[in-house]
Design a protein that fits this description.
By secondary structure, the protein is α+β, with helices and mostly antiparallel strands. The protein has 2 helices and 2 strands, in the order ββαα. Strands 1-2 form a two-stranded antiparallel sheet. Helix 1 packs across helix 2. Bound molecules: zinc ion. Zinc ion binds at residues 3, 19, 21-22, 24, 36, 38.
């Protein structure tokens, strides 16, 4: 899988993001198309949960279960 980018630049400016899986910084939007070296260590689902506040993660997890 590719890097999972979260925006670190202010909205309205050019996208600069950090990968929530490997922690690498300074990606443009093209980084979302590059293979992530930490992919074996962190699943996309776990990375997403780690990027959320505990309360948000719970809501997201419940929502995810509803779609199964
Ligand atoms: Zn990455």
């Amino acid at each position: 899988m590719t890097h999972a980018l979260t925006r670190t630049s202010p909205f309205g400016e050019a996208f600069i993001g950090r990968c929530i899986k490997c922690g690498q910084d300074g990606f443009s939007t093209g980084g979302a198309l590059v293979e992530c070296p930490a992919d074996d260590l962190v699943s996309d689902e776990q990375a997403l949960l780690d990027s959320l506040e505990p309360g948000q993660a719970r809501v997201w997890a419940q929502t995810g279960q509803d779609h199964k």
